[in-house]
Design a protein that fits this description.
The chain is an alpha+beta fold. The protein folds into 2 domains: about 1-40; about 40-239, no CATH class. The protein is about 30% helix and about 25% strand. It contains 7 helices and 10 strands. The protein has an 8-stranded antiparallel sheet, with no helix packed on it. Strands 5-6 form a two-stranded antiparallel ribbon. A hairpin with a 5-residue loop joins strand 8 and strand 9. The longest helix has about 35 residues, at about 1-35. The radius of gyration is 27 Å and the shape is globular.
Length: about 240
């Protein structure tokens, strides 16, 4: 009798274990099915590093951009750059500028990237904005100790201000300050730094005296092949 009771107990215990195992596996399978139903955009989980500046930038290929970054989240058209001088162009070229640039925007986990091209084959400008402090970027400086910085950490120096031109850009939804500097001999590219600076003090006119920006935190950067084609990542680019 005891033998039968023991055997029955063993069968019951075994059955319970099998049932528990079945329920666990079923739960895991259901969870996997639910995960598969969730649409995840690749770039939402991807982060960029400072290496983007080593491989992409003015005169790099759009093909390389798509190969490394994938398809852009948004694509549009843009005409004119931040420092485009409409007054000067009206004198030399009275007609409305006809050049329109392709715009590619990427939304990564730690940054927003904007690339422009005027021929669909080569990059005209590369812009990166981020709230992160771990993205490094090259600083074209004569001081070997300050040739690399980190966005949202590094500040504007006298070396950056030298030969630079600054301007505050009030937009429909954006207000930002930028300082642009030519680098390379003869000027091969133009670097535009976007800084955290605002002042309503008329004595701190950054257009006439860019040195007022010294010490301001650099929040983003744009590398362009022309002084007229630097661009910012506007709110309109992200919606």
């Amino acid at each position: 009798m005891e033998l039968l009771i023991g055997a029955a107990g063993g069968l019951i215990a075994g059955g319970v274990l099998l049932l528990v195992e079945y329920l666990v596996r079923r739960g895991e399978k259901n969870q996997e099915t639910e995960e598969e139903r969730i649409v995840r955009f690749t770039n939402e989980e991807r982060t960029i590093t400072g290496s983007i500046f080593n491989y992409l930038g003015p005169r790099s290929s759009i093909e390389l951009m798509k190969s490394e970054l994938g398809p852009p989240n948004k694509k549009s058209k843009e005409q004119l750059g931040l420092f485009y001088d409409a007054t000067a162009d009206a004198v030399t070229n009275p007609k409305e500028p006809e050049e329109v640039y392709d715009v590619y925007v990427y939304f990564f986990k730690n940054a927003t990237v904007k690339v422009t091209s005027n021929d669909g084959e080569t990059i005209e400008s590369l812009t990166v904005l981020t709230n992160s402090k771990d993205i490094s970027f090259p600083i074209f400086s004569f001081d070997a100790e300050t040739r690399e910085g980190h966005l949202n950490v590094t500040t504007v120096t006298a070396d950056i201000v030298e030969m630079g031109r600054a301007q505050e850009f009030p937009g429909c939804r954006d207000i930002f300050t930028a300082i642009q500097k030519p680098v390379g001999m003869p000027y091969r590219i133009y670097v535009t730094y976007f800084v955290n600076f605002f002042s309503d003090d008329p004595e701190k006119d950054i257009t006439k005296n860019p040195e007022h920006l010294i010490g301001s935190v650099i929040e983003g950067v744009c590398y362009s092949s022309s002084p007229d084609t630097s661009t910012y990542i506007f709110v309109e680019d992200t919606v």
